[in-house]
Amino acid sequence: MTFESSPGQPPQAPAPLSPQEFKATAEGILTNVEWVIEGKSHTIKLALAVMLAEGHLLLEDVPGVGKTQLAKALARSVDCSVRRIQFTPDLLPSDVTGVSIFDPEKRDFVFKPGAIFGNLILGDEINRASPKTQSALLECMEERQVTVDGNTYKLRSPFMVIATQNPVEMEGTYPLPEAQRDRFAARLAIGYPDINAELALLDRREEYNPLDALRPVADAEMIVRMIAAARAVHLAPELKRYVVDLVAATRTNAQVRLGASPRATLQLLRCTQVLAAMDGRDFALPDDVQQLAVPVLAHRLIPTTETTMGGGDTKAIVSDILRHVPVVSHPGRF
Amino acid sequence: MNGQRHATMVAAATLALTLTPLIGVFEGLGWTVPVLLTITVIATTGSLLRAAGRGQGLQTLAMCAGLLVVLTAGFGDGTALLFVIPTPDTFVHFAFLAGEGTSAIVREAPPVTPDGGILFLTLFGIGLVAILHDMFVVGLRTPALAGLTLLTMYLVPVSVAPDATAWFWFILPAVSYLWLLADDNLRRVSAFGHRFTGAGQLVSQRFPSPMARTARWSAAGFILVTLMALTVVPTNTSGFIDRVAEDFRGGTDAGLGDVNPWANLSGALNRPEAVDVLRVTTDDPNPRYLKMHVLDELTSDGFGPDDYEGGASLDDLDGGGGTDVYTATIENLALEAPVVPVYGNPSSGFDIDGDWSLDEDTGVVVGDGSDMSEVDSYSFSYDDPVYDAATLADAGGMDPDDERWEENTRHPDVPELTAIVDDALGGASTVHEKVLAVLDYLSVSNGFRYTLETADAGNDEAILDFLETKEGYCQQYAAAMAWMLREADVPARVVVGLSQGSRDGEDWVLTSHDYHAWVEVYYEGPGWVTYDPTPSAGVPGSVSFPWATEPQPEDEPTTEPGASTAPSGSPSDGPATAEGAPSEGADQPTDGLTAQAADGGSDGGSGFNPAWLLLLVLVVVPFIPAVWRGLLRRRRLDPARLTAKTAWDEVLDLALDYGVGLSDSLTPRQAAGVLGQAAPGARDAANALGSAMARHRYSPHGADTAGLADAVRDLHSELDKNAETRRRYQAMLWPASLLLKLTARRAEETSRLARRSARATDRVRAAVRRPRRSNSRRDRSVTGRP
Hints:
Structural class of chain B: alpha+beta
Pfam family, one (chain B): TgpA_N
Helix content of chain B: 40-55%
CATH topology of the largest domain in chain A: Rossmann fold
Number of domains of chain A: 2
CATH superfamily of the largest domain in chain A: P-loop containing nucleotide triphosphate hydrolases
Strand content of chain A: 15-25%
Number of strands of chain A: 13
Oligomer: heterodimer
Shape of chain A: globular
Order of helices and strands of chain A: HHEHEEHEEEHEEEHEHHEHHEHHEHH
Shape of chain B: elongated
Largest sheet of chain B: 7 strands, antiparallel
Organism (chain B): Glycomyces rutgersensis
InterPro entries (chain B): Bact_TGase-like (IPR052901), Papain-like_cys_pep_sf (IPR038765), TgpA-like_C (IPR025403), TgpA_N (IPR021878), Transglutaminase-like (IPR002931)
Protein name (chain B): Transglutaminase-like domain-containing protein
Distance between the termini of chain B: 81 Å
Number of helices of chain B: 27
Strand order of the largest sheet of chain A: 3-6-9-1-10
Keywords (chain B): Membrane, Transmembrane, Transmembrane helix
Number of helices of chain A: 14
Structural class of chain A: alpha/beta
Helix content of chain A: 40-55%
Largest interface: A-B, 22 and 18 residues
Largest sheet of chain A: 5 strands, parallel
CATH architecture of the largest domain in chain A: 3-Layer(aba) Sandwich
């Protein structure tokens, strides 16, 4: 049995990307995706931001609003490998990670990579899989590696999981535990298109599916360079303080049983950097943070029973926190 | 009545109540009608314009026009069209009236007749204040500021006529101010539709709430405490408590020109402008003092008058046996008193209107129901004997069996004083020796100083204070001398009247500054002989008496600040401005011209009245916040230190001033967006400022400051243009940002204090906490449990 493992070499240092180049490329991808999903530019922008922040995305919405379309369009716009896993209760962890099978010719076990070995993984209806399978996926998401039979295999870069789940249909599902929801950088809802967008959608889809005609506007290498460029965006001490204040406020809020984790803080900051870069800036603003706070923080909070009973939801709580936390904290006050 | 009309009415009523102290300034109540009319016209005009939905600017203009109409109707004097429309001639006439009023204010002392220039000026001033008051209370809804206008109105009578303004006049203005505040707060609270009781129930507006009762009680308590504090706290010693006490004694109720028949052993002199009281024509080359009251009742406070008996006819007057008989004709200019001022020993030929009789005991000519206010002029003959010092030295004292002995030597028993007198008299045995010894004791060479105010040395008896501090004016000198003589068994009494006055051509003019107090001592034979222990330097128009050589002052008293400043007054001396030299000249009794008295003019003429300074300060005070705010803005936008941060600070303050709500949780760009909505014309400027601030704070490269100052100015003018009138004035005169800074600073201090005390409490608690035996989980985890 060979002990095969990927050497884990550091990626080649990419050439620095100027903010303008970053912005142009990002806009190219966005325009491309918007061609498929009409009237949802903000959601698409946030989805791309999560991707460039090396986070994973949870799309939670009712069926048929374009969750899978969004994931596919995003994947196609970037020239990289896309895998799709349709989660079902009988899906096994090895279907996700891959499995070692005996090759009679070589008289040895050979590793057959699973669906996870791609750049973009589309996990459809993730809450239908058994917890066993879910946790196998989540290890990959966090560690960016797969361990099968004692061998560790590095996953590709860029690597992003776009999982979808249906919030309405709960029959026969295994809702994601809090710990696993925390792995997703952001949760987005797409929502129904408005009247005009829906009309435009009908017109465009009369002849063909625009998804089929989609051409990639960036390749994996470009994405890696963009990720690196986004990490270089300047974060002022005041801004870091603001983010920390926001996250801390979720922990002290009376309506919340469990607040956001430090991982949330990190991911919020990284998404903020990307959003700033997509705007052509080399420094982040609190405005960026505010755009991201609900998608990044809301799904991690566990509201108190009273809040749930009262019909409150965590998005409202985060919005409320945004309205009350000062952008610049006053050292004189406590 | 709707809110606006109600507030207008309250504003007018409070102003009217605040004007009540003017009663002390004017004669009669005739002035109230035009004053109330003015206030009513202004309030009605303002209210109508408001009801018509006009802005503050138009309201103010209309109220000014209303004032003009009232003034034209009242003082147009035929120059106006249709009585109310002013013509250029009207304004010329107004200017003339104003000049006349100003000179009348300088010339006359209260109470004055409310007519002509004075009434014009009064109405004009009250009208302006009424407009301001209405603006503060109703237009700008800042009743706290209206306190300034009320204060201005209250201070006018108080500063013009402090004596005529009794302490209780403070109550009405204070009540009216509290009313104003209460009414506004009620209006504010009622705006929510309901009021709360203390028990937390909602009640309708008219329901008598227990909280309102508490508020009324605390307001009453506040006024009471203020009055008591004013009574106790020795502010500007013009003796609030003394005045209160005097009012109760009825001391100052004497009419104008009458003298307060008291010789206090302590007190202070404070008297406004001099008023001409009498004009004397006499063939006496050097008239002495005009006697009015004789005070022979001695208490520990000082000398007071006995009840005059009158009874004896003026025809019984027979003079004092002097050789030179003079005739005096006295013209009454302003005197109101129940006694007739007379020189020396009047003899027959007393020519005066009304019923007057002689109190034989004291020689005072007292009215039987008549008053000097009814007398325009009177004349009489008199002699004023010049005694020979040698004669007096030989003369004996009063026989102790004399029936007058008792009342003229009675005195309180003060052992300390007895010791002082024994010491001062030494071996003096005759009356004259005793008199000279006392005069010597009270002289300048013994350290006595003329001042307008006595000091308190903490003794029980006021006379001991005077003898110890050696500071006082004529009342103390005269009372002390008479008392010391009585102590030495010499009959003596205090006389109050007028000094020589000043020469005016052939006549002598006596002003209210010439009131004086001196002493009469009884010698067997000559009878009552006059002495004046007060240093001549302190008394204009003082006369020296050759039979009692007053020791000359060795050090020139004109250097004493107490004696050389401030007009003095009741019931004695005039201002003591550098009058030492003429008074020295008065030693030669033959030279009548030397005793030059200074009338109030020499003081008033120097042209500076502290009341004007006070008014100026009151006018300037409301603009202090505006100036402060302007300086702050200028400093922030100063090109030398302009950064995006300072510009943004200014933007935030502007937003506060103009009531644009910017939450702490807004980012600079969002805040700029909100400002852009509030001032659409300056949207670009606001965005530029917001972006600059964002760059300054979050970008590693910082922000460019070019054009920021102009952007701030654009934003300012645009905000100003879009604001309501009320808000605009408020932003200028009373900027909310300044207020917030002040309160924030205070809140910070409070919280710091609170934290410190909380820490201290924790520490103390931790120190005294005993280890607790408990079965809480923490303990379990340590000890474990089977």
